[in-house]
Specification:
Elements lengths: L1 H33 L20 H7 L10 H5 L2 H15 L9 H26 L3 H26 L2 H25 L3 H20 L10 H11 L1
Helix pairs in contact: 4-5, 5-6, 5-7, 6-7, 6-8, 6-9, 7-8
Keywords: Hydrolase, Membrane, Transmembrane, Transmembrane helix
Protein name: Ceramidase
GO molecular function: hydrolase activity, acting on carbon-nitrogen (but not peptide) bonds, in linear amides
Length: 229
Amino acid sequence: MQRLRQRAAAMDRSRKKWVAWAVAVAIFVVLMLVTPAIPQNEDYHNFADQRRLFSRIMWIFNPFCFAGIPNTLDVISNIPFFFVGVVGLILCHYKNYFRLNSQGELWSWTLFFVGVTAVAFGSSYYHLNPNDATLVWDRLPMTIAFTSIMAIFIIERVDDRTGTKSLAPLVVAGALSIMYWRFFDDLRLYAVIQFVPCIAIPVMAIVIPPCIHIQPTGCGQLDFTSWLK
């Protein structure tokens, strides 16, 4: 009898998950049908500070270049992402420094810090020559970081297995949102991928208690998400 009750409870939870996903997909489809496309505003590439500094450094690499680094401060401001990402990757795999409890957590944190490290290169590349084509490489690493954080919170607050299974679909969805924007000049999918975690993560942190014994990481993740943006 106890086994029957457990099986019925498991089936009920599974049914609720499918219903929740169906409702979410339906809402998303309706929003896509009733809302207009959001094109990329070209003024986005016009930065307030467009100074070219370090002309001597540029001359070392190219003797014919005396102009300096384009959008210098925007470019060099990405350097901290490289160090944070590399240090995070090392600590993830060094004697379980973060006290991760599952392989899913390890994969999610690893992918998160890979995204952070890649921001240093992608964002620098974009700011050297701001346009829609280079903006892809600025947004893609950030999207990997956002979606990985979402998977981490699902692991910590909902279920380890569910969170681990959601990691790959979330990252793929993030990459597809970038491709959709690039090919159709429509930012709606990207906006969903970017802002849903900003809403869902604080709600999950407040409403749902951790389902595994972990070090509290929510505040650090939210602060870092804000820094990425």
